[in-house]
Write a structure and sequence with these properties.
Order of helices and strands: HHHHHHHHHHH
């Protein structure tokens, strides 16, 4: 019988990370899709960096930044009594950074696909940018929003390098399912490792299959 706590912790981490990134990703993707400025290229590169950087590199730099022996980590602990290294909040911040492009890119593509005439029509009717975003743009990119949410959630479930570097392996605090698999393999408990792996595989498969089916249905409705 496997310990269910790592699975529950993984679910918590995925839900919290996805929720935070949803509210960060929409305005950021909207800005990247429509803003014309020289700074845009730099922001796009920074958002995309987690796609090409090894997770251990991101985890290493975050570990240095959050460490109480460094300026930022010491400042947080001294003034706010916050310690991010080897803690669940630290895992959340690391996951938000690592999964950022998986939320932003699909939404940005969705915004870019919306006809410019639709935005202009909303503005001509007296809608503000905020009203246009909420009432016009977002309803027209439902499939992109769904894809972003699902990809972010699924990606967070499978994180290993980042969570290992910043969170370590503390049962009930930072030991998520991917770390549990690593532990079981090291202990040569292949049956338990296989069970954890199968649960993650099945969960990811079901989530991705669901989003493809829903998006296919939305596309069919849109074409009618």
């Amino acid at each position: 019988m496997i310990d269910l706590e790592p699975l529950w912790l993984t679910l918590q981490l995925a839900v919290v990370t996805t929720a935070i990134l949803f509210f960060i990703g929409i305005p950021l993707a909207n800005w990247l899709a429509y803003k014309k400025t020289k700074v845009k290229a730099i922001v796009e590169v920074l958002v995309s960096m987690p796609l090409v950087l090894p997770p251990s590199v991101i985890g290493f730099y975050l570990l240095l930044a959050f460490s109480p022996s460094q300026s930022f980590g010491k400042f947080l602990e001294t003034h706010f009594d916050i310690r991010l290294v080897f803690s669940f909040p630290g895992l959340v911040i690391a996951s938000v950074i690592y999964s950022l492009p998986f939320m932003v890119h699909p939404i940005q593509s969705g915004f870019a696909a919306v006809p410019e005439s639709l935005r202009e029509a909303a503005y001509s009717l007296g809608k503000t940018k905020w009203q246009t975003l909420i009432r016009v743009l977002l309803p027209n990119i439902k499939s992109s929003l769904l894809s972003a949410i699902v990809l972010t959630f699924a990606h967070t479930i499978g994180e290993f390098g980042v969570v290992l570097m910043i969170g370590g392996n503390i049962p009930g605090e930072t030991k998520v399912a991917s770390i549990a698999i690593f532990d079981e393999v090291e202990s040569m408990n292949y049956a338990s490792a296989g069970t954890y792996a199968f649960i993650l595989f099945a969960t990811s498969f079901i989530i991705l299959l669901s989003v493809y089916l829903i998006n296919h249905r939305l596309d069919r409705i849109k074409s009618i």
